[in-house]
Amino acid sequence: MAGVTMWSAILCSALIFCFDCSEARTFGIDYENDTFVLDGKPFRYVSGSIHYSRVPYQYWMDRLTKMFAAGLNAIQVYIPWNIHEPFQGQYDFSGQQDVVTFLKLAHSIGLYVILRPGPYICAEWEFGGFPAWLLKGNSDIRLRSSDPRYIKAVDQWFDVLLSEIAPLLYVNGGPIISVQVENEYGSYFACDYDYLRFLRQKMIDILGNDVVLFTTDGDGIGYLRCGTLQGLYTTVDFGITYNPAQNFNVQRVWEPKGPLVNSEFYTGWLDHWGESHSHTDAAAFAKSLDLLLAYGANVNMYMFEGGTNFGFWNGAEYPPFKAIPTSYDYDAPLSEAGDITEKYVAIRQVISKYYPPPPIPIPPSTPKFAYGKITMNLVATIPDYLEKYTPGGPIKSKYPINMEEIDHYYGFVMYRHILKDNVSWPTTLDIMGVRDRGYVMINQIPFGIIERDKNTSVNITGVIGDYLDVLVENQARINYGNNINDNRKGLITNVTHNGDPLTDWLIYPLLENITLVQPFSLKHSYPKQNGHLSTPALYAGQLVVPMEAAHPMDTYFDMSLWTKGQIWMNNFNLGRYWPAAGPQIRLYVPKPVLKQGENTVIMLELESSPCIQDGNCFVTFMDQPLINGTVHPFLGHRHGKLGHHGYLP
């Protein structure tokens, strides 16, 4: 982190702050002159979005410094509720969740903050930022509405959160100049004005009357009709435009006077597994930004730094169900790894036409290193270690239970049924309620893949006493749209065989961090093979980082030989890989995850191991990303019913 420290020192020496000013600090709106006003003077922000939850906290200063060096004077920040209250009443504002420190870092650099605390954030983030425990015992809860169960949870959460951020308001000496109420609410079916009034009043009660509260919606009349209220300043969002007046016409319907604001000026777009990587031309974006600034608009660029969906934090869209990859690069001006791009340079040049250049040069990109190939060794199949992965033991139930009801919100769950009858001839097993992808096995032999809204049945054979296992992956909760209320995971309906529901199940909620199970040196049964499928299994390897001052460095896992699964490095969950679907082939490994000497890599391969197929049991560490690889939508979602002999054709 020496480079970050150096650039921070240069930056701090170039800035002078007033943290304890005798004069009152104010931020508001001058409607007559169509502008924001900061301490009595006209003010316009040129901002960029960054998600502290998607950037390793050790790199927060690096990314914020680069944003300041681009010419920005503000950042826009979402707060995901689910990372701060993972279980009801249990709050976490430490380490990666230390949003207060993140905002103070922005303040120390000289960046103002536009805060978007939700409670719903979308952001292509798991469940749009909602904690999954909201669904426990509340299968019919109506989120983003006046449903008393939802309001009670938000009320308690905002008591905690808003009290944390109130001291950081601009009027209190901090960097926060405005706070968003809800998030693109006009795109949601509920249209519940009482809910918006509750949020507005809650924020006023804790933050006071001196903070600018605003809403954001798309630039269409239909979006704003249900998206805002009197007393909330209405803003819009849209991408590249060559006619700003047309885009802002909708804002002017609701706000005839006041500053023009594009709260999400899209620098790129999101990706989905099985679809091509999104790209927005740098020159076209810079030209559109120039037009917006010339028009006098306040602009927030979404995203300026995309970051990474580490662990299980990616979101999904529906319908149809499409999960977001681990990379949230977004084709942003700063890459997933915080590297300077052509788009960054073009944006800096445009901003310099309207404002003096920043007092620091462009910081360098973080160095990368190709550590090369390491061998991966089989540890065990998931069925081998099933008891160890569920230290609390299995849950016994007559019928399958969804994950939320057993307080298991992310990752994987195994459903086991012991066959009570002989199944000599392949017959149909139906699992209509799989959420989201399931691996069906009989005594560890894979019989097929079931998938939400696609293939939900396989043919099976077996004898009395055989283990019928269904390993279910929660691929992500829906983060956007009217279907966020239908976000239960695991098996949410009965499993039927020849039309009859199967009863008596053992349910194994697998540890979210299965790498905590020790030892990993024990090898059990070899994965069974059936067609292209192999038993889900764990593989382990060691990356040796040189004992030199320059190391460790950022690097990338190349997963091109593997199919689909999850990766942990030194017990840190780097995220999901799925090169069989694309477009992401390599996973970002940030320097703070690594250490000099031995680093332990654990992989959970769910579908088809190259160790079995062709003996290529290794991964390679590269110094370049690959998030725009070839996509294989049918291969990525492959499935099939078993033939008469129990093998995929």
UniProtKB/TrEMBL annotation:
What the entry lists under InterPro entries is as follows:
B-gal_1-like, BetaGal1-like_ABD1, BetaGal_gal-bd, Galactose-bd-like_sf, GH, Gly_Hdrlase_35_cat, Glyco_hydro_35_CS, Glycoside_Hdrlase_35
Q: What class of enzyme is it?
A: hydrolase
Enumerate the catalysed reactions: Hydrolysis of terminal non-reducing beta-D-galactose residues in beta-D-galactosides
Q: Name all Beta-galactosidase galactose-binding domain ranges.
A: 536-599
Alphabetized GO MF terms: beta-galactosidase activity
In this protein, the active site sits at 184 (proton donor), 264 (nucleophile)
Q: Where is the Glycoside hydrolase 35 catalytic domain?
A: 35-353
Per the UniProt entry, the signal peptide is: 1-24
The record's EC number reads 3.2.1.23
User: Per the database record, which ranges form the Beta-galactosidase 1-like first all-beta domain?
Assistant: 400-510
Going by the UniProt record, its keywords in alphabetical order are: Glycoprotein, Glycosidase, Hydrolase, Signal
Q: Which family does it belong to?
A: Belongs to the glycosyl hydrolase 35 family.
Q: What is this protein called?
A: Beta-galactosidase
User: Which species?
Assistant: Sinanodonta woodiana (Chinese pond mussel)
